[in-house]
Amino acid sequence: MTAWASPGLLSADDDPATAIAYVTVTFAVTVETGDPHPAAEPVDAITAALLGRGFAMLTSMDPGALRAAPVLPGWFGPITGEDRIRLGAPGEQFYDGDLGAAVPARWHSTALSRGWLVVLVATRLDLHRDDRADQAHSALHDGRLLPARSRYGGSPVP
Which residues contact 67 (CB under 8 A, 6 or more apart)? Predict the structure, then answer.
């Protein structure tokens, strides 16, 4: 499945001491399912699967909400090259690719100093459009923005 990633920094009042490094990951496809019952609502299968893997529903873009995101056991985000990252647990790959052309200053140093980063997964998000912030707020409102924390740094384990 094709995925794209875009890194960002979030802080309270632009205070570097409260900064949190995050990477937003979205997919090229949306998978919805449901049952034939007339009142049944469609279910986003990707969101449901990630909730089952330890991600949570995000209710606020406040730095405290991201800091409180659950830790994904075994997940690690090593740097695999110039602005490339691999996310996942041993034996499974969630994302392996570049971080795009606009890695914020202090993104790597913030993630390294904390030892973790927040992985934000959103469905139906187009990272190539200029209105990414508006799309992310819509995803938050619609329950399609899921955070979890992954350890970060160093080189990949062979």
Answer: 20
